[in-house]
Design brief:
This protein is an alpha+beta fold. It has a single domain, classed as 3-Layer(aba) Sandwich (Trna Endonuclease, Chain: A, domain 1). It contains three helices and eight strands; from the N terminus they run H-E-E-E-E-E-E-E-E-H-H. The strands form two sheets. It has a five-stranded mixed beta sheet. 22% of the residues are buried.
Amino acid sequence: MSRYQWHRLNSNQVGAYFEYFIKMEFAMYGLEVYTTEVDDRGIDFVARRPGFPFVEIQAKCLRDFGYVFMPKTYFQPRAGLYLALGLLFDGKEPLSFLVPATVWSSPDSTFVERNYGAPGQVSKPEWGINLSRKNLPHLQQFNIANVLSSL
């Protein structure tokens, strides 16, 4: 069996894989990682470099280009909050990004704000990322190695 056959995993396995993977990336860069017992606040784990403040991490992962979102009730643009984002393409290692929540302070066509909630709408307000080949270069500045080195 060849490695990185992401299509063989169900969505729960993909989420669990990426969350463990990203925690190990943090550890490899010398950060302490603390997991949450219950994920009811939109935070998957917290981490810190010894002697520095904690950062809060929400992890999301996709197996292809598409759209990923975080409900505004749990994810607000502020310092110390990050989205760990994974993209999995069959036959390739995970692409990993660490996006500061403050990027949504100025939404654009890649990092979007959706203010749902009008009468009759089911969805609640959210922040999101439009992930496409065209938008992938906008994410490169948030490459996990670059951002973790600066935390």
